[in-house]
Amino acid sequence: QVQLVESGGGLVQPGGSLRLSCTASGSNFGLFVMGWYRKTPKKKRDLVASSTGGGQAKYGDSVKHRGNNSRDNAKNTVYLQMNDLKAEDKAVYYCSADSVFWGQGAQVTVSS
Questions:
Q1: Is the sign of the CA dihedral 4, 100, 64, 13 positive or negative?
Q2: Is the pLDDT of residue 88 over 90?
Q3: Which of 5, 38, 47, 86 has its CA 20 to 30 A from that of 104?
Q4: Is the pLDDT score of 94 beyond 90?
Q5: Are the C-beta atoms of 82 and 91 separated by less than 8 Å?
C-alpha cells in the first residue's frame, strides 16, 4: 500500500505560479510512474503530467509549455510547477502512483 499526500495548493492570481508537491510513503518510489491529474466538476479527470523513475516526463495539453514535472526519488516526492496560471486551471489536482494509488487531492484556484 502506498499513501500519497499532496501539498501546495491554494489561491493564485492569473498569470501567477504554483508548485504542488506529492510525497509517497513506502519503498520502491523510483519504480512508480508518478502522475498528476486534475478534475473539475464539468470535466473528467485529465492527465496533467507524469514521470518515470528515471525522470522521463510527459505533459498533457492543458499545461504543456507552462508546467514542469520533476521528482526527487531520495525524498519520495514529485513536484508539479505550473506557470502563467489561467482561470481554467482551477481544479482539484491529484497525485497518483502507477494510476493505482491516489492522493486526496489539492485544490488550486486561479482568481484575482
A1: negative
A2: yes
A3: 86
A4: yes
A5: no
In this structure, what are the phi and psi dihedrals at residue 88, rounded to the nearest 5 degrees?
Answer: -75, -5
Contact 87, 111 (CB under 8 A): yes
Beta-strand runs (E) in the chain: 4-7, 10-12, 18-24, 34-40, 43-51, 57-59, 67-72, 77-82, 91-97, 101-102, 106-110
Average pLDDT taken over every residue of the chain = 94
C-alpha 8: how far from chain center: 10
What SS3 state is found at 28? coil
Task: Give the bridge partners for 4, in sequence order.
Answer: 24
The SS3 of residue 107 is strand
pLDDT of 41 higher than 90: no
Query: How does strand 10-12 pair with strand 106-110?
Result: parallel
Least Cα distance to 77 among 2, 23, 4 occurs for 23
Q: Which residue has the cell 493564485?
A: 12
pLDDT digits (tens, 9 = 90+) for 13-37: 999 999 999 999 988 999 999 999 9
